[in-house]
Fold this protein.
Amino acid sequence: MAYFPDTTAFTGVLNPLRLEVDLIDLEVEGEVPSHLDGTFHRVQPDAQFPPKYDDDQFFNGDGLITLFRFKDGRIDLKQRYALTDKLRVEREAGKALFGAYRNPLTDDESVKGMIRSTANTTPIVHAGKLYALKEDSPALVMDPLTLETEGFTDFNGKMKGQTFTAHPKIDPKTGNMCAFGYASKGLLTRDCTYMEVSPEGELLFETFFEAPYYCMMHDFGVTEDYAVFHLVPITSNWDRLKANKPHFGFDISLPVYLGVLPRQGEAKDMRWFKAPKTVFASHVMNAFNDGSKIYFDIPQAEGNAFPFFPDINDAPFDPVAARPYLHRWCVDMSSNSDEFTSVEKLTDMIDEFPRIDERYATQAYRHGWMLVMDPDMAYEGPGARAAGFRMNKIGHIDMATGKQDFWYCGPQSMIQEPQFIPRSADAPEGDGYIIAVVDNCVTNYSDLVILDALHLEDGPMARIKIPFRLRSGLHGTWADASKLPRN
């Protein structure tokens, strides 16, 4: 009989769901735009079995993927586990065999050397396939409509690195999926790769380079000319793993870097620029270059924002210093200096999970959206997200005018990552919809809401009613029907 530990990672708003389900024609309050034809895939870490260790990380759960299929004003829901090698052998054993988050030293002897991926961070459609991604492993390939698992891919033997990012970018001009890997030659190594995958799914090239130190390289940016990598000292070493400490810890003594690699370049072409001070930064809104100047937009916090990856010297977690605000970093490839050109704060909203109109990825852009925490708004529910944040608004910023607006979800709820959908393929930038899962932590149900992206304050035009509460998820992506296999 399965008993999950009575810890923050497995109780309250983070209770495991473990539900595979098909629901046809979900109940809708309001009206779904009938011209929307495509899929919204999102994923939640959701352990199939109780963990080997009671203090296990939320992020160590198996990837449970939710598919919302939009067509003719209706929405169907399908939910399946990504059937990783890990989950296959654990289902056969009827229990957890893999141990602590990113610590193979804690695994059962029977699974030593196996791919440890949980495929629980991002699902994205490319070349007619669904890639279920976890950055410590290769990409897992699934069918985007049936959610049947095909298996891990090395792109017909062309990919030599061991890892594939959870945050690839689709270049809207070339159609290439731009990706990278870190710890590419093994756990804790400084080896990294940059690669691009054609619209047909062929790996075009893979470039190896070394980072100044090993750290959690969770996201990156791509411009028309460059791949851009931020290094923030959420780092690790074998001593931590041998002591069974959390894999990552925040090391305030290390600098923050921004690495810039020409997209067709080699390791010798990489430049590392040093930030003015050590800060925390994770997800990237967008990056673009204007000649030699590179702009990199990212929520930045003054202190560590991940309480589950504590300070390596046991400094107490500071929830105020952990609050991120959108900043713009600038470096100049024509400069002889290795220092940042500038750092500019763009908003006073406490924000994370930034999104854009992805038709403007790699380019100068005008509109951005993000999850926002407004601590002044009432909250009546239990608990918070894994990071301790209660994200209760979706915010929008107009980079051209500086105007900001938002939608507040109410005192009982929290919001999961938003996603932009253009109104049509040729609609102006920002003209479209924002969708997001909203969890009512009191009634224990979730809705998928649809808002006008440029008029958030009007509130949802539709609420798609889900007859259970989805577990806190990580990332999701929209795919227009033209990107899907014919069915």
